[in-house]
Specification:
This protein is of the alpha/beta class. The chain has 15 helices and 21 strands. A hairpin with a 5-residue loop joins β12 and β13. α5 crosses α7. This is ATP-dependent DNA helicase.
């Protein structure tokens, strides 16, 4: 049985798979067939949530960070508008589940049971959980991080676990095999050699410079600001139009585009939304601003890696909840692309990427960074050392356990 049918049959499903196996693609299909009024698409991060037209799991749950004692979480979730939402929800979708903390997930289970007055797992809400635990982990509070599958309620809440096995992002077999090694924390000498050989590889063309992937956010902001400053020429400012200015700070958190975008001719940019998949205009597609169209509101004209030149117009970024639109930001679907953080890149496909892993500090971070590239020929790793490749032993155990439970483990699926 395919995942979509399992979901239609009301099962609570966790589906996983390597980077690029189409988890997000499948999730969007699932969302499109479920009744919008009672389906709540959420994700652990704002940009992943916006990508599926939902909100963050934290915004849905209404229990703050979840760090407060359970009693306080229960009273927060019992506020009328939050309780109404919990009661209305029949299917809760959580994307990027790898970044959801186990204790937080257990609290959500307790809150759902209490608000919905039901002893069933998650108060009877169907769960659709999606993600790869070998990618980015939850942010650790004090001490050891606890993955969502380590939550006490996980085994009661998740009735089916499915792995997607076909990789769509890359088609080079050697690169796929390399990534599969990195994913499980292995870095044999042949892998090190292949990655180190990319160090001086020319990947730039048509004025499009490589996007540098950093492990630390501060480096990203500094690099983009500095590089824009270095460009000669006039600054063109593009303010966003928000449906409700009172929600602008929430939109800043949830949308992949900023309230104010500054561009110059020569600015390195990337798309922040799928515009036209058939023409390669997808989230993460790289380009350079070649001019501003004076006959068309001064909008930027971007040349993409494919050679396509296009005037980029504002798009709507919707943040939805329970079928209703909560807020809308109208903004150019562009962001500066000299640099981006590994964290923000999770879920993206990047055309031309330079990766710095010298300061990688997280399990799965090197895998997320490297697996954004389409091929070894379109990436450059500047400072690769095998020590940056890490997979958490408990995650590896969890995946071994899933594989042993063959009856619950279906593969391949689409
Ligand atoms: N069934 C499919 N047929 C054709 N192309 C697909 C299919 N599924 C995914 N793709 C394409 O493969 C690429 C990767 O897909 P997607 O982002 O959904 O993978 P993912 O598993 O969510 O990756 P990640 O774990 O890195 O977020 C995208 O360009 C997507 O359009």
């Amino acid at each position: 049985m395919k995942v979509l049918e399992m979901v239609k049959n009301g099962e609570s499903v966790f589906f996983t798979g390597s980077a690029g196996t189409g988890k997000s693609y499948l999730l969007k299909q699932i969302i499109s067939v479920l009744p919008p009024v009672s389906t709540f698409p959420t994700a652990s991060t704002g940009s992943a949530a916006c990508h599926i037209g939902g909100t963050t799991l934290h915004a849905f749950a209404g229990i703050g960070s979840g760090a407060a004692p359970l009693d306080q979480c229960l009273s927060l979730a019992s506020r009328p508008h939050k309780a109404a939402q919990w009661r209305k929800c029949r299917c809760l979708i959580i994307d990027e589940i790898s970044m959801v903390d186990a204790d937080y997930f257990d609290k959500l289970d307790a809150v759902a049971k209490s608000v919905r007055k039901s002893k069933k797992p998650f108060g009877g809400i169907q769960l659709v959980l999606c993600g790869d635990f070998l990618q980015l982990p939850p942010v650790a509070k004090e001490g050891e991080k606890k993955y969502c599958f380590q939550a006490k309620c996980w085994k009661w809440c998740v009735t089916r676990s499915v792995e997607l096995t076909e990789i769509y992002r890359q088609n080079d077999k050697q690169f796929i095999a390399l990534l599969q090694n990195i994913r499980i924390g292995r870095c044999p000498p042949a892998v090190t050699k292949l990655l180190q050989a990319t160090k001086h590889q020319p990947i730039e063309s048509g004025g499009i410079k490589a996007t540098r992937l950093y492990t630390h956010t501060a480096d990203v902001e500094a690099t983009n600001r500095k590089q824009l400053g270095v460009l000669k020429g006039e600054v063109h400012k593009f303010p966003a139009h928000d449906s409700d200015p009172g929600l602008s700070s929430q939109l800043d958190n949830l949308c992949p585009v900023t309230a104010s975008l500054q561009l110059k001719q020569g600015a390195q940019v990337m798309l922040a939304k799928n515009i036209d998949v058939s023409r390669g205009l997808v989230n993460g597609a790289r380009g350079v601003v070649i001019k501003f169209d004076t006959s068309n509101r001064g909008l930027p004209v971007v040349r993409f890696t494919s050679g396509l030149e296009m005037t980029v117009s504002p798009e709507k970024f919707l943040v939805k909840m329970g079928g209703g639109v909560m807020a809308v930001r109208r903004q150019l679907p562009l962001r500066l692309a000299w640099a981006i953080s590994v964290h923000k890149s999770q879920g993206m496909t990047l055309d031309c990427v330079e990766i710095s892993l010298g300061r990688a500090f997280e399990d799965g971070q090197a895998y997320v960074a490297l697996s954004r590239a389409r091929s070894l020929k379109t990436m450059r790793v500047t400072d690769f050392q095998p020590s940056c490749v890490r997979a958490h032993p408990q995650v590896l155990d969890f995946y071994r356990f899933l594989r042993r439970m063959r009856h619950n483990y279906i593969s391949p699926v689409s």
